[in-house]
Amino acid sequence: MPTPLAQAKKSAFDIANQLDDAADAIRDRSRQAYAAGKMSLDEYTDARIKEMELRAEASVVAAVNLGAALDAGAQAGQNIEQAIADAKARIETVKTFRKGLEIVAALVVLAGALASGNAKAVVKAGKGVADLV
Asked: Where on the tree of life does the source sit, at the highest rank (predicted)?
């Protein structure tokens, strides 16, 4: 089930920036109002608490987004590791097949040497087969 953040049209980064901007606005307005005497110390303190709450929420949104990105990165890393393991297995299959072809080729050379009756060629071809087996 998608989270509310995942359903949002805005990115987590944009949401965190908006929360931070709102905290800045609260800070600036409360400072001005307190300096002008339009706000009591209790109201000013409450405004600063609200500012800190918004900043904390922005941090949570950013951290959750980073956590999701790290999870996605970990999954991608696992996929890459699996692809590497699969590729290594295929390379081993190709090496085995190639080795088989080399043995078949050496046997064909040996058969040709036997058919020719050339003793030197038979010995050489026999050594070639022995080296591969």
From this structure: Bacteria
- Here the tokens at position 63 are 């951290």
User: pLDDT digit string (tens) for 53-83?
Assistant: 999 999 888 888 888 778 888 888 888 889 8
DSSP string, 82-105: HHHHHHHHHHHHHHHHHHHHHHHH
Largest CA distance in the chain: 117
Distance CA 109, CA 17 (A): 75
- Cα(32)–Cα(38) distance, rounded to whole angstroms? 9
Read off the pTM. Answer: 0.49
Q: How many domains does the chain have?
A: 1
Cα 48 from Cα 31, distance rounded (Å): 9
Query: 47 lies in which domain range?
Result: 4-132
The backbone torsions φ and ψ at residue 56, rounded to the nearest 5 degrees and listed phi first, read -65, -40
Flag whether pLDDT at 2 surpasses 60. Answer: no
Distances (CA, A) of 27 to 17, 48, 108: 15, 6, 88
